[in-house]
Amino acid sequence: MMGKTLAYLRASTDKQETNNQKLEILEFARKKEIKIDDYIELTISSRKSPKQRRIEELINRLNPSDTLIVTELSRLGRSTAEVIALINALVETNIRVVILKQNLDICQHDMNSKIIITLFSLFGELERDLVSSRTKEALAAKRAQGQILGKPKGTIQKSKFDPHVEKIKELLEIGLSVRKIAKVLGYSNHIALNTYINKRLIKPSALAA
User: Fold this and answer.
1) CA atoms within 13 A on the CB side of 53
2) What is the CA 149 to chain-centroid distance, rounded?
3) pLDDT tens-digit profile of 132-158?
4) What are the boundaries of each domain within the chain?
5) What is the CA radius of gyration of the chain?
6) Distance in angstroms (rounded) separating the CA atoms of residues 191 and 32
7) How far is CA 60 from CA 55, 56, 151, in A?
8) Edge-to-edge strand ranges of the sheet holding 96-99
9) How far is CA 29 from each of CA 8, 11, 15, 133, rounded to the nearest angstrom?
Protein backbone atom coordinates (compact mmCIF):
# COMPACT_ATOMS: atom_id res chain seq x y z
CA MET A 1 0.00 0.00 0.00
CA MET A 2 1.40 3.36 -1.05
CA GLY A 3 1.43 6.08 1.58
CA LYS A 4 1.11 9.83 1.22
CA THR A 5 3.96 12.30 0.71
CA LEU A 6 4.30 15.27 3.05
CA ALA A 7 6.69 18.22 2.72
CA TYR A 8 7.95 20.16 5.74
CA LEU A 9 9.00 23.77 5.10
CA ARG A 10 10.56 25.97 7.75
CA ALA A 11 12.37 29.31 7.58
CA SER A 12 13.63 31.53 10.39
CA THR A 13 12.08 34.82 9.34
CA ASP A 14 11.81 35.25 5.57
CA LYS A 15 8.56 34.01 4.02
CA GLN A 16 10.27 34.01 0.64
CA GLU A 17 12.61 31.31 1.93
CA THR A 18 9.75 28.85 2.46
CA ASN A 19 8.56 29.63 -1.06
CA ASN A 20 12.03 28.75 -2.36
CA GLN A 21 11.94 25.49 -0.41
CA LYS A 22 8.55 24.66 -1.91
CA LEU A 23 9.82 25.32 -5.43
CA GLU A 24 12.86 23.11 -4.80
CA ILE A 25 10.67 20.28 -3.52
CA LEU A 26 8.19 20.65 -6.38
CA GLU A 27 11.02 20.45 -8.90
CA PHE A 28 12.32 17.28 -7.22
CA ALA A 29 8.81 15.80 -7.19
CA ARG A 30 8.36 16.61 -10.90
CA LYS A 31 11.61 14.86 -11.83
CA LYS A 32 10.78 11.81 -9.70
CA GLU A 33 7.09 11.86 -10.71
CA ILE A 34 6.02 12.14 -7.08
CA LYS A 35 2.80 13.82 -5.94
CA ILE A 36 3.10 16.05 -2.85
CA ASP A 37 -0.10 15.44 -0.88
CA ASP A 38 0.31 18.18 1.71
CA TYR A 39 2.65 20.73 3.26
CA ILE A 40 3.46 21.82 6.79
CA GLU A 41 4.78 25.33 6.31
CA LEU A 42 5.91 27.89 8.86
CA THR A 43 8.23 30.84 9.29
CA ILE A 44 9.75 30.60 12.76
CA SER A 45 13.14 30.46 14.48
CA SER A 46 14.73 27.08 15.22
CA ARG A 47 15.12 28.34 18.81
CA LYS A 48 11.39 28.02 19.33
CA SER A 49 10.03 24.94 21.08
CA PRO A 50 9.30 21.73 19.12
CA LYS A 51 5.58 22.40 19.65
CA GLN A 52 5.90 25.86 18.11
CA ARG A 53 7.83 24.30 15.21
CA ARG A 54 4.92 21.84 14.81
CA ILE A 55 7.14 18.76 15.11
CA GLU A 56 4.44 16.86 17.02
CA GLU A 57 1.91 17.71 14.32
CA LEU A 58 4.36 16.59 11.66
CA ILE A 59 4.91 13.21 13.33
CA ASN A 60 1.22 12.65 14.07
CA ARG A 61 0.28 13.29 10.43
CA LEU A 62 2.72 10.68 9.15
CA ASN A 63 1.83 6.98 9.08
CA PRO A 64 3.86 3.88 8.19
CA SER A 65 4.73 3.83 4.44
CA ASP A 66 4.40 7.64 4.20
CA THR A 67 7.24 9.84 2.89
CA LEU A 68 8.57 13.08 4.37
CA ILE A 69 10.52 15.48 2.14
CA VAL A 70 12.61 18.41 3.41
CA THR A 71 15.16 20.54 1.58
CA GLU A 72 17.95 20.04 4.14
CA LEU A 73 18.72 18.41 7.49
CA SER A 74 18.83 21.71 9.40
CA ARG A 75 15.08 22.19 8.81
CA LEU A 76 14.35 19.25 11.12
CA GLY A 77 15.98 20.49 14.33
CA ARG A 78 18.20 22.94 16.16
CA SER A 79 20.99 20.46 16.98
CA THR A 80 22.58 17.33 15.55
CA ALA A 81 21.10 15.26 18.36
CA GLU A 82 17.59 16.58 17.76
CA VAL A 83 17.79 15.91 14.01
CA ILE A 84 19.11 12.37 14.60
CA ALA A 85 16.42 11.61 17.18
CA LEU A 86 13.66 12.80 14.85
CA ILE A 87 14.95 10.85 11.83
CA ASN A 88 15.39 7.69 13.92
CA ALA A 89 11.87 8.08 15.32
CA LEU A 90 10.43 8.45 11.82
CA VAL A 91 12.38 5.58 10.28
CA GLU A 92 11.59 3.26 13.20
CA THR A 93 7.90 3.74 12.38
CA ASN A 94 8.58 2.86 8.71
CA ILE A 95 8.43 6.42 7.37
CA ARG A 96 10.71 7.27 4.47
CA VAL A 97 12.71 10.50 4.88
CA VAL A 98 14.08 12.35 1.84
CA ILE A 99 16.55 15.25 2.35
CA LEU A 100 17.36 17.03 -0.90
CA LYS A 101 20.49 19.07 -0.12
CA GLN A 102 22.34 16.15 1.49
CA ASN A 103 20.99 13.74 -1.17
CA LEU A 104 19.66 11.34 1.48
CA ASP A 105 16.81 8.90 0.98
CA ILE A 106 16.34 7.02 4.23
CA CYS A 107 13.94 4.14 4.70
CA GLN A 108 13.73 1.24 7.14
CA HIS A 109 14.51 -1.69 4.85
CA ASP A 110 17.24 -0.24 2.65
CA MET A 111 20.85 -1.31 3.41
CA ASN A 112 22.34 2.11 2.65
CA SER A 113 19.75 3.68 4.94
CA LYS A 114 20.72 1.28 7.73
CA ILE A 115 24.35 2.37 7.35
CA ILE A 116 23.33 6.05 7.44
CA ILE A 117 21.17 5.51 10.55
CA THR A 118 24.03 3.64 12.24
CA LEU A 119 26.37 6.56 11.50
CA PHE A 120 23.77 9.03 12.77
CA SER A 121 23.43 7.02 15.95
CA LEU A 122 27.21 6.98 16.39
CA PHE A 123 27.33 10.76 15.97
CA GLY A 124 24.57 11.09 18.55
CA GLU A 125 26.44 8.80 20.93
CA LEU A 126 29.60 10.85 20.38
CA GLU A 127 27.76 14.05 21.30
CA ARG A 128 26.38 12.42 24.47
CA ASP A 129 29.87 11.22 25.39
CA LEU A 130 31.30 14.69 24.86
CA VAL A 131 28.60 16.23 27.06
CA SER A 132 29.18 13.55 29.70
CA SER A 133 32.93 14.14 29.56
CA ARG A 134 32.50 17.88 30.03
CA THR A 135 30.13 17.26 32.96
CA LYS A 136 32.62 14.92 34.64
CA GLU A 137 35.43 17.43 34.13
CA ALA A 138 33.30 20.17 35.68
CA LEU A 139 32.48 17.98 38.69
CA ALA A 140 36.14 17.05 39.11
CA ALA A 141 37.04 20.74 39.06
CA LYS A 142 34.45 21.46 41.77
CA ARG A 143 35.82 18.63 43.92
CA ALA A 144 39.34 20.01 43.47
CA GLN A 145 38.03 23.34 44.76
CA GLY A 146 36.75 21.62 47.88
CA GLN A 147 33.05 21.58 47.05
CA ILE A 148 31.11 18.65 48.54
CA LEU A 149 29.14 16.78 45.93
CA GLY A 150 26.65 14.02 46.52
CA LYS A 151 23.38 12.46 45.47
CA PRO A 152 20.12 13.69 46.95
CA LYS A 153 18.67 11.63 49.78
CA GLY A 154 16.43 8.75 48.78
CA THR A 155 16.99 5.71 46.59
CA ILE A 156 15.30 5.31 43.22
CA GLN A 157 14.60 1.74 42.17
CA LYS A 158 15.68 0.45 38.79
CA SER A 159 13.10 0.49 36.01
CA LYS A 160 12.59 -1.31 32.71
CA PHE A 161 12.73 2.14 31.09
CA ASP A 162 16.27 2.87 32.35
CA PRO A 163 18.07 1.49 29.24
CA HIS A 164 16.11 3.93 27.07
CA VAL A 165 16.44 7.01 29.26
CA GLU A 166 18.67 8.89 26.76
CA LYS A 167 16.34 8.00 23.90
CA ILE A 168 13.36 9.17 25.97
CA LYS A 169 15.09 12.52 26.58
CA GLU A 170 15.83 12.93 22.86
CA LEU A 171 12.26 12.12 21.84
CA LEU A 172 10.90 14.53 24.44
CA GLU A 173 13.23 17.16 22.97
CA ILE A 174 11.79 16.79 19.47
CA GLY A 175 8.30 17.23 20.88
CA LEU A 176 6.88 13.71 20.93
CA SER A 177 4.08 12.99 23.38
CA VAL A 178 4.59 10.26 25.99
CA ARG A 179 2.05 8.08 24.16
CA LYS A 180 4.02 8.43 20.91
CA ILE A 181 7.35 7.74 22.67
CA ALA A 182 5.92 4.55 24.17
CA LYS A 183 4.82 3.45 20.68
CA VAL A 184 8.22 4.20 19.11
CA LEU A 185 10.08 2.31 21.87
CA GLY A 186 7.69 -0.64 21.79
CA TYR A 187 6.03 -0.20 25.20
CA SER A 188 2.34 -0.99 25.51
CA ASN A 189 1.71 1.13 28.62
CA HIS A 190 2.30 4.84 28.09
CA ILE A 191 0.87 5.62 31.55
CA ALA A 192 3.71 3.71 33.22
CA LEU A 193 6.20 5.57 31.03
CA ASN A 194 4.62 8.90 31.99
CA THR A 195 4.94 7.98 35.69
CA TYR A 196 8.59 7.06 35.13
CA ILE A 197 9.30 10.40 33.42
CA ASN A 198 7.63 12.37 36.22
CA LYS A 199 9.29 10.44 39.05
CA ARG A 200 12.74 10.70 37.47
CA LEU A 201 12.12 14.38 36.65
CA ILE A 202 13.31 13.61 33.14
CA LYS A 203 13.70 16.65 30.93
CA PRO A 204 14.69 16.98 27.25
CA SER A 205 18.29 16.10 26.48
CA ALA A 206 20.90 18.70 27.30
CA LEU A 207 22.38 18.05 23.86
CA ALA A 208 19.92 20.44 22.28
CA ALA A 209 20.82 23.31 24.56
Assistant:
1) 25
2) 33
3) 777 777 777 777 777 665 555 555 667
4) 5-114
5) 19
6) 43
7) 9, 6, 38
8) 38-43, 5-11, 67-70, 96-99, 104-106
9) 14, 20, 21, 44
Measured between alpha carbons, how far is 4 from 52 in angstroms, rounded to an integer? 24
| Band (67; pLDDT cuts 50, 70, 90) | very high
Give the type of residue at 49.
S
Task: Kindly state which CATH superfamily the domain 5-114 is placed in.
Answer: Resolvase, N-terminal catalytic domain (3.40.50.1390)
| Distance of alpha carbon 8 from alpha carbon 78, whole angstroms | 15
Encoded amino acid at 55, one letter = I
Compute the distance between CA of residue 148 and CA of residue 60 in angstroms, rounded to an integer.
Answer: 46
Strand-pairing partners, residue 10, are 42
> Could you tell me the pLDDT band of residue 14, with boundaries at 50, 70 and 90?
low
* Side chain identity at residue 126, one-letter code: L
Amino acid sitting at position 96 = R
Phi and psi at 70, nearest 5°, equal -135, 160
Kindly give the residue spans of alpha helices, DSSP state H, lying in the chain: 15-32, 55-60, 80-92, 111-144, 165-173, 178-185, 190-199
